[in-house]
Fold:
Amino acid sequence: MYSKETDCVHNQQKHQGVNTPIYTSTANRYIGYNEILYPRNFNTENQKAIVDKLCRLEKGDAGMIFSSGTAAISTVLFSFLKAGDHALFSQEIYGGTAKLIVEEFPKYNIDFDFIPNDEIGRLDCLIRENTKVIYTETPSNPLLSIVDLEVISAVARKNNIISVVDNTFATPIIQNPISMGFDIVVHSGTKYLGGHHDLCFGAIVTSHKLNDIIYQSALNFGGSLNGLDCYLIERSLKTLALRVEKQSSNALKLAKALQENSEISAVYYPGLESHPNHTVAASQMKGGFGGMLSFKLKDDSKTEEFLNRLQLVIPALSLGGLETTICQPSTSSHASLSEEERLEQGITDALLRLSVGIEDADDLRRDILAAIASS
Ligand SMILES: *Cc1c(COP(=O)(O)O)cnc(C)c1O
Structure:
């Protein structure tokens, strides 16, 4: 057993080179071989090298790499849900996941409910006889609210329901839901695992038993990834711990500085003691609280001017990369919701979501505060 920093860097499979050779063949000899090697069989050396590393980091036994986070999520959900089943979802989940549920599930006659994060305590009452999956995400996007993973996994276990958590925001460096009783962890690797704003992929980590089931559906859905991208993922994972540690410490510094600014009305970061679920966050997140934070400008008519005045921080979608990026969720990631739905979730036009990078924290602080002061 090594620490996460070590597991990020080293591969367990031994090759003559310290990196896994890039394997691009889609046609493979089969006479004399036990296994049919094929990218969509999820069994090439490059895929296996990354899965092995992610299993160590997420404390799981088996997993798969997909062509996007959404491919991973849809494959997992449709592996366990069929017509007549019911699933429970946290209300505060990634917009694309909510879209998948709302637009696709009715076509297959799969029933679902969304639960606000502050009502997780009554999860027990929402379970039906046909509930097969409970799915959550913590910290949530964009308001960084926290759900207690042990509470959810205990309810799921007691009722024999498959529990799934999207661990994209926390990363395996900070949070290991499988150790807290969860069955399946999913990731949009496009964010922190890739970490350089240049890869799109997804991942799952789970037990051998559940992975075998998901694998059968994954073969049919076909969301696999090629060897060249896998090579870049392997390279990215080597610095995952370093990046996330720096992003988290930068985010905490910025959250504290923003909290003290009189032009800012609210700061959402689980590492702040003022966060309503700081205690739960501190018990289930280790070594930091992640690189994502949100805040609200007091005067929401100044949002656009503020974004235009930033010199260093880049107004851009997506998150988790080396460069600090910022977005206004009401006009970007959550624009597809109605205004009423947005306001119900607290996503006003004044809300800004910051994905903190690895730059110098003081440079970032000065850039943001200067843009606030002059807008
Ligand atoms: C981006 C994201 C996804 C979707 O991942 P893709 O790689 O874009 O398909 C899922 N969950 C979370 C939390 C995300 O941020």
